[in-house]
Design a protein that fits this description.
Distance between the termini of chain A: 22 Å
CATH superfamily of the largest domain in chain A: P-loop containing nucleotide triphosphate hydrolases
Oligomer: heterodimer
Number of domains of chain B: 2
Number of strands of chain A: 20
CATH class of the largest domain in chain B: Mainly Alpha
Order of helices and strands of chain A: EEEHEEEHHHEHEHEEHHEEEEEEEEEEH
Shape of chain A: elongated
Strand order of the largest sheet of chain A: 6-7-8-3-9-10
Number of domains of chain A: 2
Strand content of chain A: 25-35%
Radius of gyration of chain A: 25 Å
Structural class of chain B: mainly alpha
Radius of gyration of chain B: 25 Å
Distance between the termini of chain B: 23 Å
CATH architecture of the largest domain in chain A: 3-Layer(aba) Sandwich
């Protein structure tokens, strides 16, 4: 099956500054892909190049196999939902939805029927004659979606569509948008900086940073097998510990050594490495009591957060590790007071080591690793090479 | 209001700092008195003009023998022709300054380009030049052009209107730009993505959004042109009269309540136009 949207080495430079750097991506028909990253990562610029409002400096954009790079934005047939909704304030809800059809010079009857159908789709039938300012934020957003879909767009593009909604409304709208997109088989690209929103909406995610794609994959890929320390931090708030790998089995942090669960082969010439471990994968135990003890630290802070207990532990001279555990139930975590010495423990499947160039450091074959983690490492290198 | 009430409460329940309370009350009352004086200074002449306009006297004398509305009946007889000239010139100015000012306003508020500051300054500068200097300058320029090219510029209607456009244009540009300040640019991109070509976008989205600014600009252009005296005096041809010039000429030879009646009629007309306009668009939003 050919891709509905293809980005080929898409780039944008503003003078010497590179906003988007050779982004390539295939979006399958009916798929929802979310571009995710902090502000300034190039995700919005990438979307705006697809809409045609920003001209690429290099690369190409293909829709159904045909380049649209030379098409002006008014001929691209993209349905866009803007962050501010961008409704026409002087037109009624129905006229807003009808706008694109008027531009296509459709007959009156056909147009009215389509508007009614769209308003039914977003459940706003009763509000056709209202002005945008008479609607709530959530309703305005649904008008924006109806207006974008009325023209039967080739792609639905969503620019931070939920960020102007109340936190309470956000989840509900996200769910509805996802169902709408699924049921109607729409191919969609969404941009957001919110990790939870992205996880909830996406078929696949594209994590971006400084104009570059860090990793493309499903939620599980990014969460379980991050390709870079940035992805590990951004998805799942991993702890990152910087040090150097010694003998393939120890990460020297400065002031403390971490006994790694796996055995690693650092690239020739550089032993610098970053260890990523997620807060909920670490178990706290009194030093010397746990078989998977990795390093001993000192508790700096212990907070009870309701469902979870959070410990902040100082490790080595100047690094910090956050540890999350259940506050009650069979897997309840042991609590430690500030100032107590505590051992941080985790299994081989929970740790991930990156080299100085932020690539996943392969586990060395000489180590008779358990079957599961061997399988894991194969997947890792595959994902990593896909991402590149 | 709330802040004031809070301050009052504070002053009442904290006897340790009575001085601060007294100072606040003093400041508040001073502000009120100043506002009252200001209102009197602004409105007293207007009230006096209205009062004068109904004197039954051919010379202005206190107290009048009686009161009459007869002066209002004479307005059209004595000033009909210059009034019509002024209205025509003002309408021409409105049309021309909208034709130039609306695109300029859109361009200046929408795009960042080289020379934007220069154009912006040029368009707004005539506001800061005294009318006499402007009128004299244009007159001298016209005479110079006429002498060197034989083109009959000075005293022509076209030159007069062009001169007026110079001082009405800043108002139109400013108000058009102000009308777009709160407009979401994404609405234009939305229209584009729905298939609207650039000119359609301006016609269907940008212009409706700046409607208040355009209407306010048109009204102000009309008023500015209609009441201009200093510049016009240099530019009219012999025998041509605008209303302000006719009034001035009349005042040279007569001191009677007719002039007051003309002034009141003008005030009423312009006031009515403002109120009417305000019913359609919130002029106050763009005129600040």
């Amino acid at each position: 099956m050919s891709a509905a949207l293809q980005l080929r080495d898409l780039s944008k430079q503003y003078g010497p500054a590179v906003a988007v750097d050779r982004v390539s991506l295939d979006v399958a028909p009916g798929e929802m892909v979310v571009l995710l990253g902090p502000s300034g990562c190039g995700k919005t610029t990438t979307l705006r190049m697809v809409t045609g409002f920003v001209e690429p400096s290099g690369g190409d954009i293909l829709v159904d196999g045909h380049s649209i790079r030379m098409l002006p934005p008014y001929r691209r047939e993209m349905g866009i939902v803007f962050q501010s909704y961008a409704l026409f304030p002087h037109l009624s809800v129905a006229r807003n939805v009808a706008f694109g059809l008027e531009m296509r010079r459709q007959g009156r009857a056909e147009r009215d029927a389509r508007v009614a159908e769209m308003l039914r789709l977003v459940r706003l039938e009763g509000l056709a004659d209202r002005l945008p300012r008479q609607l709530s934020g959530g309703q305005q957003q649904r008008v924006a979606i109806a207006r974008a879909l009325a023209i039967r767009p080739r792609l639905l593009l969503l620019d931070e569509p939920l960020s102007n909604l109340d936190a309470a409304l956000r989840q509900e709208v996200a769910r509805e948008m996802r169902i709408l997109q699924r049921d109607n088989g729409l191919t969609a690209v969404m941009v957001t900086h919110d990790q939870d929103e992205a996880m909830a909406m996406a078929d696949r995610l594209v994590v971006m940073r400084d104009g570059r794609v860090q990793q493309i994959g499903r939620q599980e890929d990014l969460y379980e097998r991050p390709a870079t320390p940035f992805v590990a931090r951004f998805i799942g708030h991993s702890n990152l510990l910087a040090g150097s790998v010694q003998d393939g089995q120890v990460l020297a942090l400065g002031g403390a050594d971490v006994a790694l669960a796996g055995r690693y082969a650092p690239p020739a010439g550089s032993s610098a490495a970053t260890l990523a471990v997620r807060p909920e994968r670490i178990v706290l135990a009194p030093p010397g009591t746990h078989p998977e003890e990795r390093v001993v630290g000192r508790v700096a802070l212990s907070s009870y957060l309701g469902a979870a207990v959070e410990h902040v532990v100082h490790v080595g001279t100047d690094q910090r590790v956050v540890v999350n555990g259940a506050s009650s139930g069979p897997a309840a975590t042991a609590r430690f007071a500030a100032g107590e010495a505590v051992a941080l423990c985790w299994g081989a499947e929970s740790e991930r080591v990156f080299d100085a160039a932020d690539r996943v450091m392969p586990r060395s074959a000489s180590n008779p690793a358990p079957v599961r983690s061997g399988h894991d490492s194969q997947t890792i290198s595959k994902v990593a090479s896909n991402a590149r | 209001m709330a802040a004031q009430a809070m301050m009052n409460g504070q002053a009442a329940i904290s006897p340790a700092v009575p001085v601060a309370g007294i100072q606040q009350a003093l400041a508040r009352n001073t502000a009120r008195i100043l506002a009252a004086i200001g209102a009197v200074v602004v409105f007293l002449p207007l009230v006096l003009t209205v009062y004068l306009s109904v004197f039954d006297e051919s010379l202005i004398a206190f107290p009048p023998r009686g009161y009459t509305l007869a002066w209002y009946g004479q307005i059209l007889d004595k000033f009909g022709e210059p009034l019509w000239t002024s209205v025509q010139i003002a309408l021409a100015c409105v049309v021309l300054s909208l034709l130039i000012g609306i695109p300029a306003g859109i361009g200046l508020s929408r795009y960042r380009f080289r020379g934007r500051e220069v154009i912006s300054t040029l368009l707004l500068a005539p506001l800061t030049v005294p009318g006499v200097a402007l009128g004299l300058g244009i007159y001298v320029f016209a005479v110079w052009v006429e002498e060197s090219s034989g083109l009959a510029l000075s005293g022509s209607l076209a030159l007069l209107i062009a001169g007026h456009v110079l001082i009405t244009l800043p108002w139109v540009v400013r108000l058009c730009m102000a009308g777009l300040v709160n407009h979401d640019r994404a609405a234009e991109e939305a229209a584009t993505s729905l298939g609207a070509r650039p000119l359609t976008v301006i016609w269907r989205v940008t212009l409706p959004a700046m409607r208040a600014g355009v209407l306010a600009g048109a009204l102000f252009a009309f008023i500015v042109s209609f009441e201009n005296l200093e510049m016009t005096i240099f530019l009219v041809s012999p025998g041509m009269n605008t209303l302000p010039i006719a009034v001035l000429t009349y005042l040279l030879y007569h001191i009677d309540p007719l002039v007051a009646a003309v002034a009141v009629a003008q005030m009423v007309l312009i006031g009515a136009a403002l109120i009417l306009l305000d019913r359609f668009v919130r002029v106050a939003q763009v005129v600040r």
